[in-house]
Write a structure and sequence with these properties.
single chain, alpha/beta, Glutaredoxin, 2 domains, 5-stranded mixed sheet, 34% helix, disordered N terminus, TXNDC17_dom, protein-disulfide reductase [NAD(P)H] activity, TXNDC17-like, Thioredoxin domain-containing protein
Amino acid sequence: MKPRWTCVQLLMLFLLGLLVVSLAFVGRLAGSLARPPRVAHAVFVKRVRSGDASHNIIRVEGLNAAEAYLNTVRLNDGPLYVLVTSLRNGTAPDWCELCDAARQPVATAFANAPPSARLLLVQVTEEGWETSKFTLRPDTQLEIRELPTLLQYNARMVTTLLLAEAFVSDPLLLASVFATPHTAATSPRVVDVTTVDEMKAALNAFDGAPIFLYYVSGRYVSTGRLWCPHCDRADVPILSYFRAYAAPNATLLRIVVAKTVDKWHDLANPFRTQAAVKLTGLPMLTRLSLSGAGLPELIEYVEYFEDRDQLRAYFQQNPAPTG
């Protein structure tokens, strides 16, 4: 017959096992604290062009890894762009068709960016993307609503939305985003307007040269993003297409109708009560030009802003191609 364990022996055995487990846990914890922090799944890639210019591309997997990297960034080293796109599953077709279409145009345009520019390429899995869309994330400043999305990082988790979805594969828009800023003497003008009086003064000074009135929201103080998400998404495409296709003597009035959402919904908002131009929503784009009879007329853009053929034709004041 096997000897029986007494209660005291069982208790001593239990305490000994507990001590061994505790020592192992403390050892692992001390080791992890001694290691320097790192960005999960981060791979640093340096691409060298002709001459001395070089571009940095940093690849990370997942939004958490992206945020960890952004918390280490020094913007005085050069501008930082963030491209959020899909992560391919091996050789399977890309689960995000727009992401697949944007890869080569982005690479081509970024090759012509200033040498100090950096691109953070954030790749997300389909499962991770679907999960993040329905999770209350504490860092809502990134505000990634669609894939692909191209942002510019402004420090402290604050970003500017540049392009989203089909806009990310547009060579003209990508060139305007990555190119070195310059202003040609013959370029059409963009004028910022914040009051009804400024808008009316511009309309009263109309001399036949086309004037485009572009109504948008103000910005969140905390993030710098336009509080109207549709305005935030359309801002760069509209301004870029205007500069590319409008006549050199054209002017675009970028009219901010309200600093906050509450001020926009206020029925006493001056832009709501004025009668010179009836606002139909935000963003809104309309054109003041001479009709065939030589009279001033307002023509609102009513197509989707994503329809770039229509948008180009509107700024060129030509009928859009059909068929």
